[in-house]
Design brief:
Elements (H helix, E strand, L loop, with lengths): L3 H10 L3 E5 L6 H9 L7 E5 L9 E4 L5 H7 L8 H17 L7 E2 L8 E4 L21 E3 L3 E5 L6 E4 L2 E6 L2 E5 L5 H11 L4 E8 L2 H7 L8 H9 L4 E4 L6 E3 L4 E15 L14 E13 L4 E3 L11 H18 L5 E6 L7 E6 L6 H10 L10 E6 L7 H11 L2 H4 E8 L15 E8 L18 H10 L7
Parallel strand pairs: 1-2, 3-16, 4-12, 18-19, 19-21
Antiparallel strand pairs: 2-3, 5-15, 6-9, 7-8, 7-11, 9-10, 10-15, 11-14, 12-13, 14-15, 17-18, 20-21
Helix pairs in contact: 4-8, 6-7
Length: 475
């Protein structure tokens, strides 16, 4: 796997990178990132000469916000459309998943991450230009594109997750982890034994590390998945303080402990819903004992916000692939395409099927709503026919309006799983439940062959007319 610096050179050669000099860590970086999302090309941004920091201490954002960068990061061929990317990604993903055990991480004794080591009194998280991303954030968040490394105390499996991390002071950071995530479960397992939980966090790395860490997959699969994607085990170093395995080619790694009963209020933080849905909560504190970093280190940032945002495109591709694979493994036939929308994330999922039997659409909808993707703050699941492109919201809304009857085709799943970021849950509360609407926007199976004929243009006629008036259809 190429390191982050090689990755940056390669995407720069593709015309996918823009450098910005002189921005301030206090809000200016965050504003520039948000403004960049309205650009149809969505370039990755590399910030240098950041105010208050020496040249070379950089921040990268937007690493996988386009099809080209997703394809490059995951070592797959370039494609012509997002729908094609999802399909190729799905096929590749199944192969990667089968080969995880063949690419377990390779332990080495040296690597670029050891170029600089800070311990004890020298530990200072403010050495790195962690931005304050949004105006009303509770502080600076150093962990947004990170890989949070923990170990299951029972199985010994190493897990990578992505959770937001706020700077509290030079030597401590807070971490917010939603219920049910592996990092949180590992911390709770150690604390139940009245022991401190060892923690290491990679804060800069090839975006593949971040993206696999942020994906919904079984605990302990991440390093093997990263290796499978590139056909080579990940080089890791056993971190001296915690004993955890850290990527040898990372840019910045911090290591320390989450002590039992040591909590501090964390947040608020502008989240992917476009709101400060989480507020302020007591969250585990990481006491940092060691910092490792490369010369001229690069912090990977991925600030959430209302879509489109830094992660919405990639997450749409990744989650759609995982979900389609899940549905096929559950025996749902003829799943034409799946799209976990950019507009709503997991709150709006569209599944396209070729109907084979009565109840086919309902089956696909219910399984989607209860999948690992669908239960991540799900809200609406829409199932459409195979002639509808689930990525094209105009087509999806047309199908909902013309092929569904609210009385017959909308069902509600009550007391479904949700989380503290859900904007429709009034806080404080002890239980995070929501409801999920499943909408069957397919032609009624019983008489789909009698459904009104659609207005269409024959492909031959369309080609002839375009050929006759070519100037009208040029970009």
């Amino acid at each position: 796997m190429e390191d982050l610096r090689t990755w940056i050179k390669n995407i720069a050669a593709m015309g996918e990178l823009k450098q910005i000099d002189g921005a301030h860590w206090d809000l200016e970086i965050g504003v520039l990132v948000k403004l960049s999302w309205v650009n149809p090309n969505r370039p990755a941004l590399i910030f240098d000469n950041i105010v208050d920091y020496p040249a070379g201490f950089r921040v990268l954002t937007g690493s996988t916000a386009t099809a080209k960068r997703v394809a490059h990061t995951f070592n797959i061929p370039q494609v012509s459309s997002t729908r094609e990317l999802v399909q190729v990604f799905n096929r590749k993903y199944q192969g990667w998943k089968q080969n995880i055990n063949e690419f377990r991480p390779k332990e080495v004794t040296s690597g670029p991450i050891l170029e600089n080591i800070l311990s004890g009194k020298d530990v200072n998280l403010y050495r790195f230009p962690a931005p304050k991303w949004h105006e009303d954030d509770g502080g600076r968040f150093i962990g947004t594109g990170c890989a949070f490394i923990t170990q299951d105390p029972d199985t010994g499996e190493t897990n990578l997750g992505t959770y937001r991390m706020q700077l509290h002071d030079e030597k401590t950071a807070g971490v917010f982890i939603q219920p049910g995530h592996h990092g949180r479960m590992h911390i709770e397992q150690y604390h139940a034994r009245k022991k401190a939980c060892p923690v290491a966090v990679s804060l800069g790395h090839n975006p593949l590390v971040f993206r696999i860490a942020s994906a919904e997959m079984k605990a302990g699969a991440e390093y093997g998945m990263i290796g499978a994607v590139h056909g080579k085990p990940v080089d890791v170093i056993k971190e001296e303080i915690t004993g955890l395995l850290i990527p040898a080619n990372s840019e910045i790694v911090i290591a320390g402990w989450c002590q039992p009963n040591k909590m501090k209020e964390e947040g608020p933080f502008g989240e992917w819903t476009g709101y400060y849905g989480g507020g302020r909560f007591p969250a585990p504190v990481i006491d940092i004992e060691r910092i490792y970093y490369r010369n001229n280190p690069i912090l990977v940032g991925s600030p959430p916000d209302r879509a489109p945002n830094d992660s919405s495109y990639y997450l749409g591709v990744m989650r759609s692939s995982i979900l389609q694979n899940f549905l096929e493994e559950c025996g749902v036939p003829d799943v034409a395409a799946v799209w976990v929308s950019e507009e709503g994330g997991t709150q709006l999922i569209i599944v396209s099927i070729k109907q084979r039997y009565a109840g086919h659409a309902k089956q696909a909808a219910i399984l989607t709503s209860q999948s690992a993707v669908g239960t991540n703050q799900g809200r609406y699941v829409i199932v459409v026919d195979e002639d509808i492109d689930p990525i094209n919201m105009q087509e999806v809304l047309w199908a909902v309006c013309t092929r569904s009857d609210p009385e017959k085709d909308i069902d509600i799943i009550r007391r479904a799983r949700s989380n503290p970021l859900d904007t429709m849950i009034r806080k404080p509360t002890k239980a995070f439940h929501n409801s999920v609407a499943i909408i069957d926007a397919c032609k009624p199976y019983e008489w789909k062959d009698e459904f009104p004929q659609e207005i269409r243009i024959a492909p031959e006629l369309e080609a002839r007319v375009k050929g006759k008036w070519p100037d009208i259809f040029r970009d």
